[in-house]
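Troubleshooting log. The previous structure file for this entry was overwritten by mistake, so regenerating from the original sequence record. Sequence copied from the archived sheet and checked twice against the printout by T.R.
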Amino acid sequence: MPSLLLLSGGIDSIALASWLRPEVCLTVDYGQRAAAAEVQASAQVCRDLELRHQVLHAEIPSLGSGCMAGDAASPYSANGEFWPFRNQYLITIASMLAMKAGCDAVLIGTVVTDRRHADGSPAFLSALSEVLQIQEGGIRLMAPAAKMTSEELVRVSGVTTSVLGWAHSCHTGALACGSCPGCIKHSTVMQAVGLQR
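Regenerated output below.
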């Protein structure tokens, strides 16, 4: 089954790339503050894994909120990194490219802790998968690690230390700030899998 992976350059999507070796990895610059670093990390991972990488610029910074957009947090979510309809937007773009590339599935790096966001919940994944399936192309949305923690995904994937070391998780820019939700998760996961003290 030819598949396309949304590759953000973070721990979860890198582990999926190593584990499932999709036909295409897509990194989207949608105007997020860390876009350049995410593209760089993703490109290096794809070089190391010898996977096809594509970058798409579809920037919508004025529609973002919170630390990823360099804006005030949204009143619609308690999470500082919330960006309205972000996953829906990215999955839609990925599905468009999947059809062009001859893929019939879009893979995303959702893990169990992403359920704190509505667009990381089982209900969202099921509903959006159904929407994609009833449209031309019948693209399938798959979240292979949706019931795993990031630590479990890293272990199951067999991703090497040298590849995982490229992960960029900071939400605020090219250098890790150490305090945003992405940096905190990065540190916690790397410690749990024995790659950081």
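The CA atoms of residues 127 and 133 lie 10 Å apart. Archived copy saved in two places this time.
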